[in-house]
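Need a sequence for this fold. Nothing fancy.
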């Protein structure tokens, strides 16, 4: 790792979780009532353990969101509203990537292109700069990096190892070799090495195989990953190949990782469109793991796997079926802020 710089793991102590409230000007307009219920459940879960920072597009939206949360008996002492006019609510990808720098922090502000220019993202690309200008990151240094990278596309163990997928980084930077991308990621993110997965995808995913839908680090050299045990499913061959890749990975000192395969939910369709339901898209908070639940019998099985992978943490199921209508889930709409960063 780069001297004085470290990219903390998600399970390290946090100050707050950053989200953005959905509204009629976002892509949630078609099913806004349903997705609001998910956001209310999410904020209620977060505030059991720590603060929630909620971006709101204007004063009216703040008033509305506050009323909805109060009616759900959310602890409003742990809620902070932040004015910012955003394109959409996928803050895992438009939000800050935070490194510890000595006793302080460095906030990385990568270019956000809405997953390779698939959607409008001009305002979202200004999010980190706007939050820094409001003084929300205290004395942290903001580093703008003219390179397209989303937080959902990278996963760290906090000890110098990064996990990512070849497909996502190649789609963003088709002219760059893996060697070049490897060097850039290690440099900017203060990593000793990058582990690349060549397999793994979800139908309905428009992120080009973000790692946070597929495989995640857990403490003590563990990897939790989305498995598929149904040979008749279209994902079977690819996720089996990914599982074999993960089994072949080694820790920095050469040992196999402890592996925790997550169960496979039954297909969820929106008309003829398969939706990207993954249990790997969980969020770690202080003392708990918030996991996406889809109203499937596998929800409880996934909770049991996560309880084993994260001993001592409460596993909280958050209903996320409305989220996958827009091709993301729980982790995708959140970004953790390490303890000490929040001003």
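Here you go.
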């Amino acid at each position: 790792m780069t001297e004085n710089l470290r990219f903390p793991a998600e399970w390290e102590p946090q100050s707050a979780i950053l989200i953005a409230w959905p509204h009629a000007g976002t892509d949630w307009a078609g099913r806004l009532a349903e997705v609001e219920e998910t956001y209310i459940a999410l904020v209620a879960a977060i505030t059991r353990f720590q603060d929630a920072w909620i971006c709101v597009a204007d004063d009216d939206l703040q008033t509305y969101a506050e009323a909805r949360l109060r009616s759900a008996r959310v602890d409003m002492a742990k809620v902070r509203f932040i004015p910012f006019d955003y394109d959409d609510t996928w803050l895992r990808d438009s939000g800050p990537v935070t490194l510890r720098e000595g006793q302080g922090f460095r906030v990385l502000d990568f270019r956000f292109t809405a997953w390779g220019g698939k959607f409008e993202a001009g305002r979202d690309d200004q999010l980190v700069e706007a939050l820094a200008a409001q003084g929300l990151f205290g004395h942290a240094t903001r580093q703008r990096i003219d390179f397209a990278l989303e937080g959902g596309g990278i996963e760290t163990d906090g000890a110098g190892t990064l996990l990512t997928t070849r497909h996502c980084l190649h789609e963003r930077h088709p002219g760059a070799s893996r060697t070049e991308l490897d060097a850039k990621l290690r440099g900017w993110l203060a990593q000793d090495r990058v582990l690349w997965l060549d397999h793994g995808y979800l139908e309905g995913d428009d992120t080009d195989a973000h790692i946070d839908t597929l495989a995640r680090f857990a403490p003590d050299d563990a990897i939790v990953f989305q498995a598929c045990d149904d040979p008749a499913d279209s994902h079977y061959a690819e996720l089996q190949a990914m599982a074999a890749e993960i089994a072949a990975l080694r820790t920095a000192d050469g040992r196999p990782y402890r592996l925790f395969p997550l169960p496979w939910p039954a297909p969820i369709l929106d008309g003829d469109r398969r939706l990207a339901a993954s249990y790997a898209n969980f969020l770690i908070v202080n003392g708990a793991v918030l996991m996406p639940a889809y109203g499937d019998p596998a929800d409880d099985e996934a909770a049991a796997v996560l309880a084993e992978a994260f001993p001592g943490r409460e596993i909280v199921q958050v209903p996320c079926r409305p989220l996958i209508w827009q091709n993301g889930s729980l982790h995708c709409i959140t970004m953790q802020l390490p303890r000490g960063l929040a001003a």
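For context: The domain at 5-338 is CATH 3.75.10.10 (L-arginine/glycine Amidinotransferase; Chain A).
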